Amino acid sequence: MTIADVQKILKAELVCGGDLSAEVHNACGSDMMSDVLAFVKDQSVLLSGLVNTQVIRTAEMMDMLCVIFVRGKEPTAEMIELAKEFDIVLMKTPLRMFNACGLLYENGLRGGDGI
Amino acid sequence: MKLHYEVAGDDFTRAGEASGAVKATLKRLGFPADVIRRVAIAMYEGEINMVIHADGGVADVEIEPDRILVTLTDRGPGIPDVEKAMQEGFSTAPENVRNLGFGAGMGLPNIKRYTDDLKIDTEIGKGTCIRMTINVPS
Lengths: 115, 138
Description:
The complex is a heterodimer of chains A (115) and B (138). Chain A has a single domain (3-106), classed as HprK N-terminal domain-like (Udp-n-acetylmuramoylalanyl-d-glutamate--2,6- Diaminopimelate Ligase, Chain: A, domain 1, 3-Layer(aba) Sandwich), CATH 3.40.1390. In chain A, 37% of the residues lie in helices and 17% in strands. Chain A is built from five helices and five strands; from the N terminus they run H-E-E-H-E-H-E-H-E-H. Chain A has a five-stranded mixed β-sheet, with helices on both faces. In chain A, strand 4, helix 4 and strand 5 (89-92) form a beta-alpha-beta unit. In chain B, 37% of the residues lie in helices and 29% in strands. A five-stranded antiparallel β-sheet of chain B has the order 1-2-3-5-4, covered by helices on one side. In chain B, helix 1 packs antiparallel against helix 2 (33-54). The A-B interface holds A 31-35, 37-38, 50, 52-55, 57-58, 60-63, 78 and B 12-13, 15-16, 19-20, 23, 33, 37, 40-41, 44-45, 48, 88, 100-107, 109-110, 113.
């Protein structure tokens, strides 16, 4: 699916741009960035309820294309600036983590080899 | 090519800037994506550790065609038990650090996971020096 599909499925609001037509196949959901760095491999989408700049830096280190904040969490202005610099799409959804991950899984996104 | 960075200890939001800069440099130089990611993650974990535990430090990076050497040096409290610190899940990070998404006891194990060689020199009350090598497959 594309990032635009992810947005539609999660009824997510786009926070900042990037390429919405990019294809994504794997995702991970975590509030613990240490675990994302440890277990994630080749996932292009990160779902998180954690709000600080290290979420964006972690996504960048892992070459992710899109970060979705669950539970209606609002990324800060600093995070948005950083995401723009790294060309990472940011979105927010009112859905809780479990439901957001479940919907994406149901629609074909997978967790890959990691968590 | 040699790079040098100061890692500020008082600003968690800036932790990772040096790793990000190294990642961008390696990309520009055309290193394989897998090598770049391994260097970036290992150095990022080390940088976070320096900010969390040691009030910052310095990062030196040597880029050679066949290997990348990252040396992180701090004047922090030192690691009392390196063997324990290498165990996944062991952490001495305070609660406020865990709330920021780190301190799960994955830092050093992660660095080991992503590097080909890891050397830790540490002395209580003096500081820690971590040398990590990532080989570039020919």
